[in-house]
């Protein structure tokens, strides 16, 4: 394991390095718990990131994912070899699922690594209430942007939670430098860019045919937007800008 210092760009050895073999394989199967809002088949960027991460970890770790259900009931499922615990959701406030059952669940868990995906105020409150054992790793995907008035109410919880983290992961140095939250925690933040599965982007004969169909329909110059239609994507700015661009905009959610 290595981390990249966001301030100097140096590669620093992890404290766990001495416990790994020359191939970087741990000599034991650590128990890892991922805590998120939702998991597949629920769509979303963080959900997709967590899914791909767990696909690579499931054969190397004793892995569990704990998230909220889309209904007020509990379920334990096997999702392509990953144990997924879905806790009852009783409400959703400001994009945050409210699952009080996460607190007693975390009190009972004994993990080597607890990996929490933010923003997720419910997970932060649950962690601070339960005080589970194990190293705390936080993937910090975004500041809270739209609900700034609500963030002011809970920022003390957020700062306390991040101060307990052994490592905080950000995707780019800019995420750290321009975040009023992460800039306070540069000493424990490492940069790990988002990965993709290369096979998903290979130009197969079928995809080449589809590209040809799109160019025949919309012309040779196409701007293709793929993502959920949510406020923080800023798609309205792209749409306004198209009046100055010699191309067709294709939007896919």
From TrEMBL:
SUPFAM superfamilies registered for this protein in UniProt: UDP-Glycosyltransferase/glycogen phosphorylase
Xref: InterPro entries: Glyco_trans_4-like_N (IPR028098), Glycosyltransferase_grp1 (IPR050194)
Protein name: Glycosyltransferase subfamily 4-like N-terminal domain-containing protein
One Gene Ontology molecular-function label: glycosyltransferase activity
Organism taxonomic ancestry: unclassified sequences, metagenomes, ecological metagenomes
Gene source species: marine sediment metagenome
PANTHER family membership: SULFOQUINOVOSYL TRANSFERASE SQD2
A Pfam family that the UniProt record links to this protein: Glyco_transf_4
Region (Disordered): 1-23
Gene3D superfamilies hit by this protein: Glycogen Phosphorylase B
Glycosyltransferase subfamily 4-like N-terminal domain ranges (all copies): 43-198
Positions with biased composition (Polar residues): 11-23
